[in-house]
Write a structure and sequence with these properties.
about 270 residues; mainly alpha; MetI-like fold; 12 helices; globular; transmembrane helix; MetI-like; membrane; transport; MetI-like_sf
């Protein structure tokens, strides 16, 4: 038995990048093949779970008819705006909460309270506040991301070794210098990874955001198809969201590996 195989199946073993990609593709194709066989055998009513081939046909038809690309771009734009707002607000607030105990004592109960609120339950109040325009959709996406991200930033900043701070103080660094030159730089690798995770969370709120008097976006496409029991189109829309999420996730992973080559690569 060759050594790479043994290393791969060892506890927390190593696996090459190429092997990881091949295993991932193989597992995905195996799931799709099993799904297709189950559909061919008639074990599942296609009204409830269409086959991968039927979903692929619907996706191709919807793409040719212009239902996918334009709506995907609209959804992507909403996600990027909401996520950028969340990150721009959560990072400085999280750093302040980690650095100054009174700030943490004041804000943590509020953040903890709001992050447990179900975002769909706040749809009516968001319509009252912002109407039925883009502001409501952006707000709902922001709401589902911001409060989770704040605590992740706090946790990342708290993990910076205290020795780094003490050494900086010994050398005469001021609080702002410690925050920017020590805490920020030390926590940045974990922060980028957490941004990748929370971007995925932001996508999970897309359907909730785009059912609010919307006439565009992938959430609208999925919700509209649901009304007519067009399950294949629903699954096609879900597939596109998953594909965009997978691509964005891999791009951020690649960026992480490139920026922080001194760390163990993220698999």
């Amino acid at each position: 038995m060759n050594k790479p195989f043994i290393d791969a199946f060892a506890f927390r073993g190593s696996i090459s990048r190429r092997a990881s990609v091949l295993v991932g593709l193989g597992a995905s194709f195996a799931v799709l093949a099993a799904w297709q066989i189950v559909s061919w055998r008639g074990f599942v009513d296609p009204t409830f779970l269409p086959s991968p081939i039927d979903i692929g046909r619907s996706l191709w038809t919807m793409t040719r008819e212009g239902q996918i690309v334009g709506n995907a771009l609209v959804s992507l734009g909403r996600i990027l705006v909401a996520f950028a707002l969340s990150a721009a607000m959560a990072i400085p607030i999280g750093l302040l909460m980690s650095s100054y105990r009174p700030v943490n004592a004041a804000l943590e109960p509020i953040v903890d309270f709001v992050r447990y609120l179900p975002t769909p339950a706040l749809v009516p109040i968001s319509i009252i506040w912002f109407g039925i325009g883009e502001e409501t959709k952006i707000f709902l996406l922001w709401l589902g991301t911001f409060f989770q991200l704040v605590l992740l930033v706090v946790d990342d900043a708290n993990r910076v070794p205290g020795e780094y701070v003490e050494i900086a103080r010994t050398l005469g660094a001021r609080p702002f210098q410690i925050l920017v030159d020590i805490s920020w730089r030390a926590m940045l690798p974990n922060l980028v990874d957490n941004l990748r995770i929370t971007l995925g969370w932001c996508w999970t709120y897309l359907i909730v955001a785009e059912i609010v008097a919307s006439d565009s976006g992938l959430g609208y496409v999925i919700w509209n198809a649901r009304r007519y029991m067009q399950t294949d189109q629903v699954m096609a829309g879900v597939f596109v969201i998953g594909l965009i999420g997978l691509v964005s996730d891999q791009l951020i992973r690649a960026l992480h590996r490139r920026l922080f080559r001194y760390l163990k690569p993220v698999n």
